[in-house]
């Protein structure tokens, strides 16, 4: 269950192809999948992931069990290799996967900070206000929210976009539960489909880009299949949407100073990340962190020029924690000036998500070092064929988190062509739409629209989403000359 993607959109894995697969550098891996250590490691992984699945029932953050599982798995890996007279390979492999995660962590942190900064500047609230204030019918709002979700999610990530448009659906739907349910399903499908044709739309797409399997511009070959993936169920569901006028609340909220500048900085940072990767063959995280540095400098500017408000005799602001060197403000007697602080924005990053990715990367890496992924690659891609295997893996992503699935495929490195990598990316990115628990967007909207958009209300339209999924895969195969 993709309960955790806060990205938007997301995240970097090691860009050097030689660091992927079952053979890293000069270390030689041993197939230990049938050993006692292998069975214990697999059991630990399954138990850890069971806790992730039951996160909302147990109120236990998903990062906690996978971090513990990662540590135990690698201890077993070290013991297994040491028993076979190789005390060094486990350490070499672990350091490589930690490097994978380091790039993932920094990329995610930069992307999350930009998105949180735009949220703090009320960029998303201003967009929502504009949409709600239009005199559109419910059916028009249905198509506008779905279309904007499809367009915005490749840039702002599918989860953030789904939350934004879900808020619009709730605002205009008021007590029209049928519209809210169908509108949320439409947003979830559009968010996952839109995120499938951009490295910044979903974690899995960025992982594929970072690995070097698909270049940045090549992802746009998935635009038409992704559009089909959304439009097929959207057209079928739209038949149940009324043409009446919405009755939701219409509060007018404006964007804060600097919102447009931050959006432009985010676009420039994305461009820089793409350029350093495609032209200089440097990891994209370099561009993202450089852009984050520029954003921090702009945050310093905002800290001196952002409006300061006085409420009930105190100087207050959205980030109101810093006591500055200006101990007094003329005309005020609080003795404290509270200003905008960029580090407060950084603190709002989803740290549970970042720690969860640490556990996922190391757990899957440990299983790969024990030989499980190479065996799985032979089972799926050797016996079923690449296209069918990719389609099945996409369906599995509606039940199992797509991040470990895509990481496993990348670690298998089954020798796929560009079209086959694109098919895998499309399948894994959109397969989670089949169930409400199959994607971060679905899980987030279930929490946002509690009691209205539910697992069962989504399941009623799973047949239509499945038709869109199948149609999108055939569309890609047709475009690639299958």
Task: Characterise the protein shown here.
This protein has 482 residues and is mostly helical. It has helices at 36-53, 55-58, 63-83, 89-120, 123-133, 138-156, 158-173, 177-194, 203-211, 223-238, 259-278, 285-305, 342-347, 351-369, 372-383, 386-396, 402-412, 418-431, 440-448, 455-459, 462-479, and strands at residues 309-311, 314-316. It has one domain (17-268, 348-479). The protein contains 21 helices and two strands. Strands 1-2 form a two-stranded antiparallel sheet. The longest helix has 32 residues, at 89-120.
Give a brief outline of the structure.
Residues 1-21 form the signal peptide. The chain is mainly α. Helices cover 64% and strands 1% of the residues.
**For this entry, what is the oligomeric state of its chains?**
single chain
Rounded to an integer in angstroms, the radius of gyration calculated over CA atoms is 23 Å
Mean pLDDT: 78
| Major sheet details | 2 strands, antiparallel
| Overall shape | globular
Sum up the structure in keywords.
single chain, mainly alpha, 21 helices
List the helices and strands and how they pair.
Layout: H1 36-53, H2 55-58, H3 63-83, H4 89-120, H5 123-133, H6 138-156, H7 158-173, H8 177-194, H9 203-211, H10 223-238, H11 259-278, H12 285-305, E1 309-311, E2 314-316, H13 342-347, H14 351-369, H15 372-383, H16 386-396, H17 402-412, H18 418-431, H19 440-448, H20 455-459, H21 462-479
Antiparallel strand pairs: 1-2
Helix pairs in contact: 1-3, 3-4, 3-14, 4-11, 4-12, 4-14, 5-7, 6-7, 6-8, 6-10, 7-8, 7-19, 8-10, 9-17, 10-21, 11-12, 14-17, 15-17, 16-18, 18-21
